[in-house]
Structure formats: structure tokens, C-alpha cells
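W.,

You were right to be curious about this one. When I first looked at the sequence I had no strong expectations either way, so I just let the prediction run and decided to look at it fresh. Below is the sequence, 186 residues in total, followed by the output.
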Amino acid sequence: MAWRGLPAEGRVTMPWKNGGGVTREIAAWPPSASLDAFDWRISMANVDVEGPFSRFENVDRVLTVVKGSLALQFGDGASVVLTEMSDPLAFAGEAPCLGAPSDGGVIDLNVMVRRGRATVRVRRCFEPQPLRCDGGVLLLLALDSGVLNGAPIAPYDAMLAAIGDVATVTGPWPRLIAVELVLSPR
């Protein structure tokens, strides 16, 4: 499969599982899977008020703050503050978690994989580096405007690739978030 553009404009807004906000799905497998049936799901959300995260049994999550600052308090007492420069944070989807944005709202990237069906690695790409899909699926989320594989990209646009695809950035390097997913054999 060649790179497929997933523009930010026109993404469908969906209510959070717990009813406390909304999210916009970027991509999921299988396509159009419900929240109880996906193997993996990538979405962006706005967090404007303090509240509990939706619980997802048998799901591993990776949360990356794209804009703002988000304090997380887990049920076991652990706490962390994520910012636009923080490394992505992995945690169990069933873990009780309270999120509190500071200094206004937060935009985050949420990657969820069903345990045993997929694995994920999320990383920030702030400077030029190889962008090749060596595993199952590679999704690149643009944080800035740029040109990727000859196509203009705007902030929050994404591009999806499969094994063997290589991304070429021309012009100034846009800040990107790379999500690498590998489906587990069934």
C-alpha cells in the first residue's frame, strides 16, 4: 500500500466512552470497529476539564500531549505531568486515571492496542531521521505544516503506510509523531 493521507479536516467527532468529552478518530483496525472490537485505534482529543479517563479492559494505551500540559493521577498513587515535550506515556487501559489540564485546554494523541492483538511504539520526531515502515503499520501525525512524499501536510494531518513504505520530507522538517503498530498473529 502506498502512503495514504488522513487529513485533520473532516474527522468525525465521537463521544468518549465515559461521556466526559469528545475524540476524533484518525485510524483504527479493523476499519469502523467499535470501541469494544478494535485491534488498534489512534485518535486525538481535547481535554478542557478535569475528569476520569475512560476505562478499556485488556487494552494498552500510549498518551502523547500535542498541545498544553496534562497532569495524570493514577489509582495506585502514581502521578505524572505530560507536556508538548514529554515522552509518550504507556499505561494499562483499565488503570484508574484522572486527567487535569493546566493553563487552558490540552490536545492529546491517544493510541490504544488490544493486548495480544497488536504492539505499539510511539515517538516524537523533531529532527530529520529515517521514516520507514519496517513493521506492520506506520502512522505519522504532523504537528507543523510541511511536505511529506510530495504532498502538503497541515498541522494534525496524518499519513498512514504499510511495510516497506518510506517517507520523504522535502523542505523544512515538520515536527512529527510516529506511531508504529505491529499486529500479532492470531
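Here's what jumped out at me. The chain is about 0% helix and 55% strand. And, maybe more interesting for your project: Residues 11-114 form a domain with the Jelly Rolls fold (CATH 2.60.120.10).

Coffee later to discuss?

I.
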